[in-house]
Amino acid sequence: MTREEIIKELKRFFDIQELVCDHTYEKYKENAWRFLQTDFLHALLIIRRDIIKAPMWCNSRTAHQRGLRCNRCQLVREKNNVYLSAHVLGCAGDFTIPSLKTAQDAREKIKANQSHLPCKIRLERWDSSGREISWVHIDTIDGGPQQPKVYEFKA
């Protein structure tokens, strides 16, 4: 699929406002799609349309900074060191999937259907203190040739 075809299909499931921070959306509106990497968009499409097959929420009225984060976002401004997360690089999103009981159920479903994925993905499973997180973080950061198709990691 071309990038244009991927975005057209993704628009059936997501508004760009859900996938980028408020600052980015306010400035760029529909043109903000250009800041999201094609591999991430393609993986997100396959996960939403072909694997989960149910609504997935990124940014919402009550949840912010879960997709693309810019330099004005609080989570970025608070960093004292170099901060090059997948969110800043346009290849990550944190999702809530209401139809599944837990985030781990979603991660298991994605792993069980990984042959459908167009590229390698990473799924954050644990926070920095080792607790399992309650959302589904998906990113397409390249972990190198040794990284499996679906890699679970600790923040």
Number of helices: 6
- Work out the helicity level: 25-40%
Low-confidence stretches: none
Content-based structural category? alpha+beta
Strand order of the largest sheet: 1-3-2-4
- Morphology call: globular
Q: Quick one: biggest sheet?
A: 4 strands, mixed
* Radius of gyration, CA atoms, in whole angstroms: 15 Å
CATH class: Alpha Beta
Number of domains: 1
Average pLDDT number: 95
How much of the sequence lies in strands comes to 5-15%
- Looking at the overall shape, the CATH architecture is 2-Layer Sandwich
Cα(first) to Cα(last) distance is 31 Å
What is the succession of H and E elements? HHHHHEHEEE
Task: Give keywords.
6 helices, Muramoyl-pentapeptide Carboxypeptidase, domain 2, 4-stranded mixed sheet, alpha+beta
What does this protein look like?
The protein contains 6 helices and 4 strands. The protein has a single domain (3-154), classed as Muramoyl-pentapeptide Carboxypeptidase, domain 2. The protein has a 4-stranded mixed sheet with strand order 1-3-2-4, with helices on one face. A hairpin with a 5-residue loop joins strand 2 (121-126) and strand 3. It is 31% helix and 15% strand. It is globular and about 40 Å long. The protein has helices at 3-10, 16-19, 22-28, 38-52, 74-77, 103-112, and strands at 92-95, 121-126, 132-139, 150-154. It has 155 residues and is an alpha+beta fold. The mean pLDDT is 95.
Outline of the structure:
With 155 residues, this protein is α+β, with helices and mostly antiparallel strands.
List the helices and strands and how they pair.
Layout: H1 3-10, H2 16-19, H3 22-28, H4 38-52, H5 74-77, E1 92-95, H6 103-112, E2 121-126, E3 132-139, E4 150-154
Parallel strand pairs: 2-4
Antiparallel strand pairs: 1-3, 2-3
